[in-house]
Amino acid sequence: MTAATVRRGTAFAPRAARIGLYVFLVVSAIFFILPLLLVIMNSLKPMEEIRQGNLLALPVNPNLEAWATAWASACTGLDCAGIRPGLWNSIKITIPSVVISTLAGALNGYALAQWKSRHANMIMLLITVGLFIPYQAMLYPTVKILSTVGMFRTYAGIVFVHIIYGLPYTTLLFRNFYVGIPDEISRAARMEGASFLRTFWSIILPISTNILVVVAILQFTGIWNDYLLGLIFAGNDNLPMTVQLTNIVGNSRGVANPNVNMAAALITAIPTLVVYFLSGRYFVRGIAAGAVKG
User: Fold this and answer.
1) Model-level pTM?
2) What one-character-per-residue DSSP string does the chain give?
3) Which of 3, 16, 94, 151 sits a CA distance of 20 to 30 A from 222?
């Protein structure tokens, strides 16, 4: 075997590995995108095409009639106002829940990162253990507590539940990020007379853009897509879009309209898609910068 043959074989191995990686990524992308494409295609079909039974076929006469029905006139039980009422409910639940849980998690994470004590490690351990407890197991105690204080099935109650259930997760992410910030920054601020809160608000928070974006996106996605907590704690006047979507799909009045159901599902998913499209590069930048290191 000549030296040239050895060099060609050595160069071929990385090239083959790279090609294999690209093939895997393309196949994975198709695997995840194909269901979305099928939902989009069938939401654009009239019921005449849906009844033909070929869900994989492209729409012959595409239109937005199913989208209009899902938005404004689909029945969610006795009410036939579509999924539109749930949009404002989801917005007013998600925004304060995301903002408060993110900022509170940042403050808690910074405090635990600065607290040089074995007690801090113990608290962090308890928070981590709490993350592995499914919140379904805590539903009954939460219902009893909120009922006692008069917050069960109210707007304040559902926001409070999302904030409390999100705090362990946000605290863990922020704490893992802040332990990587040099202590000299906080020490220099204290030498200048800055208090703990002043240091956090004026120095630490402005350099936390990466982790703030990552946590906010994760919290937004989780809260917007939540169904169970919204169903139990929101009350009839504050039902989010996910609950409205389930009511549309499960509505027993009349004939089932798969195209309307798919259109309603897409309308519900649009806000999270918009958030990812607008801030996706910041999300990737935050992860690449070590925002979720631990």
Assistant:
1) 0.85
2) --HHHHHHHHHHHHHHHHHHHHHHHHHHHHHHHHHHHHHHHHHTS-HHHHTT--TTSPPSS--SHHHHHHHHT--SSS--STTHHHHHHHHHHHHHHHHHHHHHHHHHHHHHHH--SHHHHHHHHHHHHHHTS-GGGGHHHHHHHHHHTT-TTSHHHHHHHHHHHHHHHHHHHHHHHHTTS-HHHHHHHHHTT--HHHHIIIIIGGG-HHHHHHHHHHHHHHHHT--HHHHHHS-GGG--HHHHHHHHHT--SS---HHHHHHHHHHHHHHHHHHHHHHHHHHHHHHHTTTT--
3) 151
